[in-house]
Amino acid sequence: MTYQDAFVPPYSDGPDLGHTEPQDTGPSAFSPALDSKGRIADDKAMLRAARDLTKDLGTARPAVFWGDMLISALLGYAALAGAILSSNIWAALGFGVVASLSLYRALLFIHELSHIHRDALPGFRFGWNLLVGIPMLTPSFMYEGVHTLHHQRTRYGTPEDPEYLPLALMKWWSLPLFVGIALLAPVALIIRFAVLVPLGALIPAVRNLVWTRFSALSINPDFRRRPADTDLKTRVIWQEAFGSLWAIALALSPLAIGWRPLLVALAVFSVTAVLNQLRTLVAHLWENEGEAMTVTAQFLDSVNVPPPGPIAEIWAPVGLRYHALHHLMPSMPYHALPEAHRRLAAEFGDMSTYAGSNHPGMVTLLRRIAASTMRAR
């Protein structure tokens, strides 16, 4: 069982534009190679090594996927129950933190599902949707067919990229707005599935609006989702049906069991949504102004937060602490990324293009982006 498209083409030609300054948080002596027009050129040695040194790491391990996802989900739901049932405020808060972090990890398997080949890990997509995607009103269709657009070489960082905004070049107030809006995500999802989906079943115009505007986990407000292909459309139907029934049950639950369970669950999911938004904020440097970029420029605009720091595994779980490496090998399973990173880091050293994507942590990255927005006019 292997992933499809495990490696990007090592030699990509075409337009290439990216930031050309040395990385503030990378090796001090590093500066990317530039072409004759002063733009970041592809580092072909790095791209070749990403392909050749990691050929044996492209196979997904079912035991790792199932074990990790099940433990995370079950721990999250058990802690959520503890937060709802506990009469002690501090115990409830402790349970809430555990629930948020565990369910956050379980939820982020949606990223793996957007890359996994349909024949790999039989039953995992269905199982994840039943245990995590639908209960958290974020079924996999909301990322499938969307996230892969972000990995298309000619779309990354352009206005056609659903997951890119030049945040580092925007006004300072765009950052708190970007993070704060995530607090509303759980309520917005209940409205989408409990109200808009049933209305869309009756009114085609509503259905079209819901699909094009409210059916993708994207951050680009100009992104409009295109019609789903036949294979995805089948999954959309059953995932939306079950999601709608669950959202209606949640909305009506206070009539039967009171408000506490719903409010606690919404608070836990809001924390999860904000944490994911913070992770998204530091997943890239967001310094591209809309032009197509080379693979190397995309890599350097993306972020690795490698060990030894252990905290990154909490806020960027399921391989997302190696986000830049993931952009070199989009379909490599998450459990193989640490070993792939070790091999490439050993191959190229601290003053290389590869090391230029390494950053020490979230706080440093937030400071960098915030400082950039303060200079924006």
Q: What general form does the structure show?
A: globular
Question: Which structural category do the helix and sheet elements fall into?
Answer: mainly alpha
> What is the radius of gyration?
21 Å
Q: How far from one another are the termini?
A: 50 Å
Strand and helix order: HHHHHHHHHHHHHHHH
| Assembly classification | single chain
GO biological process, one term: lipid biosynthetic process
Pfam families: FA_desaturase
Keywords: Membrane, Transmembrane, Transmembrane helix
GO molecular function: oxidoreductase activity, acting on paired donors, with oxidation of a pair of donors resulting in the reduction of molecular oxygen to two molecules of water
Question: How does this structure look, described?
Answer:
By secondary structure, the chain is mainly α. The protein has one domain (1-60, 154-377). The chain is built from 16 helices and no strands. It has helices spanning 44-52, 62-85, 89-107, 109-113, 124-133, 147-150, 174-180, 185-202, 204-214, 230-257, 260-281, 295-300, 312-315, 323-328, 337-348, 362-375. Helix 8 (185-202) packs antiparallel against helix 9 (204-214). The longest helix is centred in the middle third of the chain and has 28 residues, at 230-257. The radius of gyration is 21 Å and the shape is globular. Mean pLDDT is 89; it is low at 1-29. Pfam families: FA_desaturase (PF00487). It comes from Alteripontixanthobacter maritimus. Residues 1-35 are annotated as: Disordered.
Summarize the structure.
This protein is mainly alpha-helical and 377 residues long. It contains 16 helices and no strands. Residues 90-350 form the Fatty acid desaturase domain.
